[in-house]
Design brief:
113 residues, 0% strand
Amino acid sequence: MKENASGYYRVSTFFIAKLICDLLPMRLVPSIIYSSITYLMAGFQLSTNRFLIYFLTIFMSTVFGSSICFFVASCIPIFGRNFNSSLVKKILFICFSGFSYHSCICICFNDGF
């Protein structure tokens, strides 16, 4: 934040620019591409309102995931601990979301495969 100390711009300007540069290319564009492909592949109703709800759900989940990572990064300034805590967070999310590999194996064996 040397620029802030020198008086080039305020902190709020920096974070708004960072949010816009992070939000548009890294969150919005992949969400549009992913939701348009998967919405048609899933065979959902071809309705603009329903597609927008589907898109907003995917977009907000990506924004939520990135905001949690930003929160962890701001709370833990040491990179090694920050990286490890992010991995632990992701592993816990995978374990409790029901999408882990173990649950897929149990479902396959219970169906008789």
